[in-house]
Amino acid sequence: MFSEKEYATYLDAFQRRVPAHWARFDCPTQRDFLLKKLWEAQLLPSETTIQYFIEKLAKQGQLVRVDGGNAENDFQRQVAKIQEEPLLKDEIDWFASLSAAELQDRYWQNNAHNRFAARYQLAMKLWGFIAPAKPKAEVTGE
To answer: Of 6, 15, 80, 102, which sits 20 to 30 A from 113 (CA to CA)?
Structure first.
Protein backbone atom coordinates (compact mmCIF):
# COMPACT_ATOMS: atom_id res chain seq x y z
CA MET A 1 0.00 0.00 0.00
CA PHE A 2 1.38 3.40 -0.99
CA SER A 3 1.60 6.16 1.60
CA GLU A 4 0.41 9.74 1.31
CA LYS A 5 4.05 10.77 1.79
CA GLU A 6 5.04 8.91 -1.39
CA TYR A 7 2.40 10.80 -3.35
CA ALA A 8 3.57 14.08 -1.76
CA THR A 9 7.10 13.37 -2.99
CA TYR A 10 5.85 13.02 -6.57
CA LEU A 11 3.60 16.07 -6.25
CA ASP A 12 6.63 18.09 -5.14
CA ALA A 13 8.64 16.75 -8.10
CA PHE A 14 5.76 17.59 -10.46
CA GLN A 15 5.59 21.12 -9.01
CA ARG A 16 9.32 21.61 -9.65
CA ARG A 17 9.10 20.27 -13.21
CA VAL A 18 5.92 22.10 -14.25
CA PRO A 19 5.47 24.91 -11.71
CA ALA A 20 2.78 26.80 -13.64
CA HIS A 21 0.51 23.74 -13.89
CA TRP A 22 -0.02 23.10 -10.18
CA ALA A 23 0.19 26.82 -9.31
CA ARG A 24 -3.28 27.21 -10.83
CA PHE A 25 -4.70 25.04 -8.02
CA ASP A 26 -2.10 25.46 -5.26
CA CYS A 27 -3.44 26.07 -1.79
CA PRO A 28 -3.00 23.93 1.35
CA THR A 29 -6.56 22.56 1.43
CA GLN A 30 -6.48 21.51 -2.23
CA ARG A 31 -3.04 19.93 -1.81
CA ASP A 32 -4.36 17.89 1.14
CA PHE A 33 -7.50 16.97 -0.84
CA LEU A 34 -5.43 15.84 -3.85
CA LEU A 35 -3.10 13.75 -1.69
CA LYS A 36 -6.09 12.14 0.06
CA LYS A 37 -7.70 11.25 -3.29
CA LEU A 38 -4.41 9.85 -4.59
CA TRP A 39 -3.99 7.74 -1.46
CA GLU A 40 -7.57 6.44 -1.73
CA ALA A 41 -7.03 5.42 -5.36
CA GLN A 42 -3.74 3.66 -4.60
CA LEU A 43 -2.41 4.09 -8.14
CA LEU A 44 1.31 3.81 -8.72
CA PRO A 45 2.86 7.06 -7.46
CA SER A 46 4.36 9.01 -10.36
CA GLU A 47 4.31 12.47 -11.86
CA THR A 48 2.01 11.14 -14.58
CA THR A 49 -0.45 9.92 -11.93
CA ILE A 50 -0.28 13.34 -10.26
CA GLN A 51 -1.00 15.17 -13.51
CA TYR A 52 -3.82 12.76 -14.39
CA PHE A 53 -5.51 13.28 -11.02
CA ILE A 54 -5.14 17.06 -11.14
CA GLU A 55 -6.85 17.14 -14.55
CA LYS A 56 -9.50 14.61 -13.53
CA LEU A 57 -10.44 16.38 -10.30
CA ALA A 58 -10.41 19.79 -11.99
CA LYS A 59 -12.69 18.53 -14.76
CA GLN A 60 -15.08 17.17 -12.13
CA GLY A 61 -15.01 20.53 -10.32
CA GLN A 62 -13.40 19.01 -7.22
CA LEU A 63 -10.23 21.10 -7.62
CA VAL A 64 -10.88 24.80 -8.09
CA ARG A 65 -8.47 27.17 -9.76
CA VAL A 66 -7.06 29.75 -7.37
CA ASP A 67 -5.42 31.89 -10.06
CA GLY A 68 -8.72 33.25 -11.39
CA GLY A 69 -8.13 31.69 -14.80
CA ASN A 70 -9.90 29.08 -16.84
CA ALA A 71 -9.16 26.83 -19.80
CA GLU A 72 -10.15 29.48 -22.34
CA ASN A 73 -7.77 32.03 -20.78
CA ASP A 74 -5.00 29.43 -20.89
CA PHE A 75 -5.76 28.71 -24.54
CA GLN A 76 -5.72 32.40 -25.49
CA ARG A 77 -2.32 32.83 -23.78
CA GLN A 78 -0.97 29.85 -25.71
CA VAL A 79 -2.27 31.24 -29.01
CA ALA A 80 -0.70 34.63 -28.28
CA LYS A 81 2.63 32.96 -27.52
CA ILE A 82 2.46 30.86 -30.70
CA GLN A 83 1.61 33.94 -32.76
CA GLU A 84 4.55 35.91 -31.34
CA GLU A 85 6.83 33.84 -33.56
CA PRO A 86 7.18 35.47 -36.98
CA LEU A 87 5.73 33.59 -39.92
CA LEU A 88 8.39 32.02 -42.08
CA LYS A 89 8.30 32.01 -45.86
CA ASP A 90 8.23 28.22 -45.77
CA GLU A 91 5.08 28.30 -43.59
CA ILE A 92 3.32 30.70 -45.94
CA ASP A 93 4.30 28.59 -48.94
CA TRP A 94 3.10 25.46 -47.16
CA PHE A 95 -0.25 27.02 -46.25
CA ALA A 96 -0.71 28.10 -49.87
CA SER A 97 0.13 24.61 -51.15
CA LEU A 98 -2.44 22.71 -49.07
CA SER A 99 -5.52 21.34 -50.73
CA ALA A 100 -8.84 22.66 -49.45
CA ALA A 101 -9.59 19.34 -47.77
CA GLU A 102 -6.19 19.09 -46.08
CA LEU A 103 -6.38 22.71 -44.93
CA GLN A 104 -9.85 22.13 -43.50
CA ASP A 105 -8.75 18.96 -41.69
CA ARG A 106 -5.66 20.54 -40.17
CA TYR A 107 -7.32 23.82 -39.25
CA TRP A 108 -10.44 22.37 -37.65
CA GLN A 109 -8.69 19.60 -35.75
CA ASN A 110 -9.80 19.84 -32.11
CA ASN A 111 -12.26 22.58 -33.12
CA ALA A 112 -9.39 24.86 -34.29
CA HIS A 113 -7.70 24.64 -30.90
CA ASN A 114 -4.31 23.60 -32.25
CA ARG A 115 -0.93 25.06 -33.23
CA PHE A 116 -1.67 24.87 -36.97
CA ALA A 117 -4.86 26.92 -36.58
CA ALA A 118 -3.05 29.53 -34.47
CA ARG A 119 -0.31 29.91 -37.09
CA TYR A 120 -2.85 29.97 -39.95
CA GLN A 121 -4.86 32.65 -38.13
CA LEU A 122 -1.72 34.77 -38.05
CA ALA A 123 -1.36 34.26 -41.83
CA MET A 124 -5.00 35.29 -42.21
CA LYS A 125 -4.36 38.48 -40.27
CA LEU A 126 -1.07 39.40 -41.97
CA TRP A 127 -1.46 38.01 -45.50
CA GLY A 128 -5.18 37.75 -46.14
CA PHE A 129 -5.46 33.97 -46.05
CA ILE A 130 -9.07 32.77 -45.74
CA ALA A 131 -10.30 30.48 -42.99
CA PRO A 132 -11.52 27.15 -44.30
CA ALA A 133 -15.20 26.36 -43.87
CA LYS A 134 -16.03 24.40 -40.77
CA PRO A 135 -16.76 20.78 -41.68
CA LYS A 136 -20.38 19.77 -41.49
CA ALA A 137 -21.18 17.09 -38.97
CA GLU A 138 -21.60 13.76 -40.69
CA VAL A 139 -25.11 12.38 -40.40
CA THR A 140 -25.29 8.64 -40.30
CA GLY A 141 -28.47 7.00 -41.49
CA GLU A 142 -29.80 4.09 -39.56
So the answer is: 15
